[in-house]
Amino acid sequence: MKCAIVAVGTELLFGHTVNTDAVFLSQQLNLMGIDVLYHYTVGDNPGRLSEILKLALSDCDLVITTGGTGPTQDDLTKEVICEVMGDALVEDSHSMERLIRHFERRQRPMTENNLKQAMMPSKAVVFDNDNGTAPGFALESNGKIVICLPGPPNELNPMFEDSVKPWLMNRSSEALYYRTIRTFGIGESMLETKLLPLIDGQTDPTLATYAKMGEATLRIASKRSTEEEARKAVEDMIKRVYEYVGDYIYSTDDESLPELVGRKLIEKNLTMSTAESCTGGMIAARMTDISGISAVFERGIVTYSNGAKMDELGVSGETLERYGAVSPQTAEEMVRGLQKKTGSRVCVSVTGIAGPGGGTPEKPVGLIYVGVMLDERMEVFELRTNNTKRQWNRNYTVLFALDKINRFIDEMGE
Amino acid sequence: MKCAIVAVGTELLFGHTVNTDAVFLSQQLNLMGIDVLYHYTVGDNPGRLSEILKLALSDCDLVITTGGTGPTQDDLTKEVICEVMGDALVEDSHSMERLIRHFERRQRPMTENNLKQAMMPSKAVVFDNDNGTAPGFALESNGKIVICLPGPPNELNPMFEDSVKPWLMNRSSEALYYRTIRTFGIGESMLETKLLPLIDGQTDPTLATYAKMGEATLRIASKRSTEEEARKAVEDMIKRVYEYVGDYIYSTDDESLPELVGRKLIEKNLTMSTAESCTGGMIAARMTDISGISAVFERGIVTYSNGAKMDELGVSGETLERYGAVSPQTAEEMVRGLQKKTGSRVCVSVTGIAGPGGGTPEKPVGLIYVGVMLDERMEVFELRTNNTKRQWNRNYTVLFALDKINRFIDEMGE
After folding, report:
1. Other C-beta atoms within 10 Å of A169: how many?
2. Which end of chain B is more exposed for a tag (fewer CB within 10 A), N or C?
3. Cβ contacts of A3 within 8 Å, gap of 6 or more
4. For chain B, counts of helices (H) and of strands (E)
């Protein structure tokens, strides 16, 4: 099946928004064995959108549009799809009910233009939007399919996973199975280099690497006549991948490090507290994003100033004076002070120079110390990112700390 | 001048790479008053590239290609451009010299296929590449221009700034000016409804609304013969927009709430501390993302458990018992306790039910109390998001709290 992705939105042509929908959909479709041949982006202009849709449909069996499904006047994707596919918009009572309930729940008035969002092509299969007001749909005509999705990624991604993917899979004679392997501590190109013997000449399962901020992800996908066969092929490949890069793998189920650590803490009933300087609360924020974490997450302390480090964690003035706030000694006193104060079994401390300013030749930007304790075990890790980007350094440090905590938990025994 | 951007590269269609070149070029071109009408992405496939180039040239005066200019066999952008524009590749002696020097300097052997990179269309204006081996070029024919640029952003961006922009500026007669207005507390459709009298029938300046998580953004753009005129038109329109939705506007310069609050704190030398329960450190994390914030940000405390609220902030057991952790009384004691403990002038407390679990009929998911203090002034705000999504509730609460802090700062007088 050949596919084109058509993004609709003047904000993309202004460069205000990055077209992450095209990235997400391309990855997903490729995993499903659907070839993506083109990405198109047009503004909120019905004439040009119509032209592009016709062009895309002339080459491809499947065209997916993203965006232009909002309540406002310039949102015209549905109208243009109807025109091109020879259908007309009618009120979809199911969507209308959902829309009315959506506004009722929020106790917000529904404006006239919102009504537009319950209008769907008469022959469409409608996909509910659990995260916004614009439903999606699939419309078929003359062996061609147009799928219309809302633009915001937090609406599009779950709609694709929950509705579009199953709908598309039902039409395929083959079964797809894939797993996403998450690694930390290895770059994407190094990961690919190490896996080259497995990637080269491999047609099924396929292996593809992706880079995220500081993480490299590996997708292993197989398409066979049954799901069982595909699953077996993927699982056999995972075993082989472990032989090459096992030490870097922390999840074979696409779990993020906060999710993974959070789950283990809850399962093992391990209490946790955090003491952060340069990450400024990010570890606490990520951990408390996990639903149910309140059972084990006790306390987070952001000790940005030296005074706060002394007051809150009992770091000695002498240590701060002699070794500085960014030192293994301070990291150790922070994490020991935190455990003493909170009694939490898992404690972590972070102190470092996130940048872009504040570096010196001895203590450059990107020098970070992370202290980890689990019961009596304590270790301080030195991280040198060789990067001057504040956000990157902060994000990477969070993952670095969680990776260490994960290893501590795995190594604690039963 | 109407422009299309054509990205060439199969890696984009696999979703391995985000098309940041299109974002960069769109921003730059729009600022220069050049309308970007389309983004196209095609794989390393000469037939499809040729088809897209012809299509783009039929609508646009200017087509910019990115990528496919490397030394390998599948890099065919130049060849296809020549075919479409009726030119032929010839060796460019200037580029050849630079290429030879490039490899000499790096003491790396120049392979046969590198020679290809010094081949340029015979009628092209060549743009040097100071950061790689692929030069760019502009080629004109029959009133149409094709500009060919290398794909890597670290090569493309400086080549655009240093060579392409000056080359294009010499040809343009119009100037564009735009501003991005940020609002909080109003949805996108409500914003548009309120601004309808200004949007309807408006051709210049244009007004466009965009939704971000919990925020609505408004872009006002004008294209006139001079930048001064365009700027005046936009600034006049901003004044009119204030008359309609002024109460929701927090920035007319595309500043985010954390950036705005952080800047004001630093400018006014106001110290800040945070006490967070359901946001779990997110406010501290956002604030400490601001470079230079360490001058004023003192301490963040994540009091997830009741014990932590009592220990760290002196919330009384009786208050927690009688009113519960999620109550205006607890929010007040948290923020007062925080100020007492830290002495920070700006203090904020958050306690609420982020969900998805933990709600009751009286205290549903999405019920959040935010306490704000600035010196003696204290207020507790009740927020009911009517949303059960944990991430959404947490993110929205951060913005809600920062919006209140921003108003407190504005209202404090000098």
Report:
1. 13
2. C
3. A29, A34, A35, A36, A37, A60, A61, A62, A63, A64
4. 15, 17
Mean pLDDT of A356-376: 95
CA dist A185 and A247 (Å) reads 9
A-interface mutation test, from B12, B14, B272, most A Cβ less than 10 A away: B14
- What integer pLDDT is reported at residue A414 of this predicted model? 62
> Are A38 and B18 a contacting pair at CB < 8 A?
no
Tokens for B181? 């207005």
What span, in angstroms and rounded, lies between the C-alpha atoms of A299 and A305? 18
Inter-chain CB proximity B288 and A274 less than 8 Å = no
Q: What is the ipTM of this complex?
A: 0.78
Residue B285, chain A, CB below 8 Å: the answer is: yes
Question: What are the tens digits of pLDDT across the range B40-65?
Answer: 999 988 999 999 999 999 999 999 99
How far is Cα B351 from Cα B333, in angstroms, rounded to an integer?
11
Residue B256, chain A, CB below 8 Å: the answer is: no
Q: Evaluate whether A353 touches A366 at the Cβ level (below 8 Å).
A: yes
Portions of chain A given CATH number 3.90.950.20: 257-411
The pair of three-digit structure tokens given for residue B280, joined into one six-digit string: 């779990």
Residue A412 touches partner B, C-beta closer than 8 Å: no
Write the CB contacts of A268 (distance below 8 Å, at least 6 apart in sequence): A409
Tokens 């130049």, residue located: B78
Q: Is B46 exposed, middle or buried (0-12, 13-18, 19+ CB in 10 A)?
A: middle
| A39:B40 CB<8 A | yes
CB of A7 within 8 Å of a chain B CB? The answer is: yes
Three-state DSSP class for A275? strand
Pairing of strands B272-276, B346-352: parallel
CATH of domain A2-169: 3.40.980.10
CA pair distance B125, B138, nearest whole angstrom: 5
The fold of the B175-251 domain, in CATH, is Alpha-Beta Plaits (3.30.70)
Residue-wise pLDDT for A29-85, tens only, equals 988 889 999 999 999 899 999 999 999 999 999 999 999 998 887 889 999 999 999
Per the structure block, which two tokens stand in for A201? 């000449």
CB of A111 within 8 Å of a chain B CB? The answer is yes
* Cα A45-A48-A53 angle, rounded to 5 deg: 115
Instruction: Output the 3-class SS for B310-372.
Output: HHHHCCCHHHHHHHCCCCHHHHHHHHHHHHHHHCCCEEEEEEECCCCCCCCCCCCCCEEEEEE
pLDDT value at B414 more than 70: no
Say yes or no for a CB contact (<8 Å) between B390 and A289.
yes
Tell which residue, A68, A73, A74, A35, has the closest CA to residue A53: A68
Say which DSSP state B124 is in. Answer: P
Domain with CATH 3.30.70.2860 in chain A: 175-251
Q: What are B274-322's pLDDT values in tens digits? A: 999 999 999 999 999 998 899 999 999 999 889 999 999 999 999 999 9
Closest Cα in chain B to A33: B14
Total CB pairs under 8 A between chain A and B: 252
Asked if the C-beta of A304 comes within 8 angstroms of chain B's C-beta atoms, the answer is yes
This prediction's pTM: 0.80
Residue whose token pair is 């081949």: B119
**Fold for the domain defined by A257-411:** Maf protein (3.90.950)
Is the distance from CB of B44 to CB of B79 less than 8 angstroms? no
Please count the other Cβ atoms lying within 10 Å of the Cβ belonging to residue A302: 33
Where do the CATH 3.40.980.10 domains begin and end in chain A?
Answer: 2-169
Cα dihedral A72/A77/A78/A80 (nearest 10) = 120
Q: Strand order of the sheet with strand A377-384? A: A377-384, A367-374, A346-352, A272-276, A297-303, B297-303, B272-276, B346-352, B367-374, B377-384
Instruction: Find out whether A153 and A23 touch, Cβ atoms under 8 Å.
Output: no
